[in-house]
Amino acid sequence: MSAEQPATPMKLAVVGAGGRMGQTLIRLINETPGAVLAGAVERAGSPHIGRDAGEIAGVGTLGVEVTDDALGVFVGVEAVLDFTTPGATVEFSELAAQARIVHVIGTTGCSAEDDAKIHAAARHAVVIKSGNMSLGVNLLSVLVKQAAKALGSDDFDIEILEMHHKHKVDAPSGTALLLGEAAADGRDIGLGQHSVRVRDGHTGPREAGAIGFATLRGGSVVGDHSVILAGPGERITLSHHAEDRSIFARGAIKAALWGKGRKPGLYSMLDVLGLNP
């Protein structure tokens, strides 16, 4: 009997290949069994255009040239990993739908209009979108939902504190909003109607049932998040500290591999990790 042939590695593309997350993704794809880098995309005019993606990421020549022709790349791969900007992500979602490939979205700061367009694209392609791709944060979101459900709003107030590096442009972070949604789901309320994003001046007493957000920016912090449930005489804090952005890249690669062969639709990391009820 002949030996079983190894499965063909899944062909992945990275958009925003020259950025910090893009380079991290390229390095980790190169180390991941079952995955291979087959495309790298940058914006038109980027100084990285025409360079080898592996050299940009510091892993040597991979034979994958960075290009600004996203559709040309997408038709030759099975999945695209996207940690770019909301506007770019919406465009990529339309192209990924045309190419019928898996689109893994780690981009944060998307508006309701952006999300609607991404949801429309998911009718034709597998889209996996999350405010955070790490295993730890997604497990934390499940715990937050359970805690919020168990501890009623009459006795426990919920505050979410997050800190990121000084270059992050959106606030609250996608992860903070993900955790806020988990808390709201636990209490069977809508986050949009109960969130408090800013406190300044004479605010009056805290509104019962509100979910508060506090945002800190500075230095090189990858990402710190704490969900505080404060009750009379006691306080519970559920926290996650990201020490290396590679945790997000690993999660995104795992999501791409999971999405291969799935039916078109909009999925989350909870689906990938089997944490959805």
Automatic annotation (TrEMBL):
InterPro entries: DapB_C, DapB_N, DapB_N_CS, DHDPR_bac, NAD(P)-bd_dom_sf. The active site is at H164 (proton donor/acceptor), K168 (proton donor). Pfam families: DapB_C, DapB_N. PROSITE patterns: DAPB. It is an enzyme of class 1 (oxidoreductase). Residues 10-133 form the Dihydrodipicolinate reductase N-terminal domain. GO terms for cellular component: cytosol. Its EC number is 1.17.1.8. (S)-2,3,4,5-tetrahydrodipicolinate binds at H165, G174, T175. GO terms for biological process: diaminopimelate biosynthetic process; lysine biosynthetic process via diaminopimelate. Keywords: Amino-acid biosynthesis, Cytoplasm, Diaminopimelate biosynthesis, Lysine biosynthesis, NAD, NADP, Oxidoreductase. It catalyses: (S)-2,3,4,5-tetrahydrodipicolinate + NAD(+) + H2O = (2S,4S)-4-hydroxy-2,3,4,5-tetrahydrodipicolinate + NADH + H(+); (S)-2,3,4,5-tetrahydrodipicolinate + NADP(+) + H2O = (2S,4S)-4-hydroxy-2,3,4,5-tetrahydrodipicolinate + NADPH + H(+). Belongs to the DapB family. Homotetramer. Catalyzes the conversion of 4-hydroxy-tetrahydrodipicolinate (HTPA) to tetrahydrodipicolinate. This is 4-hydroxy-tetrahydrodipicolinate reductase. It comes from Phyllobacterium pellucidum.
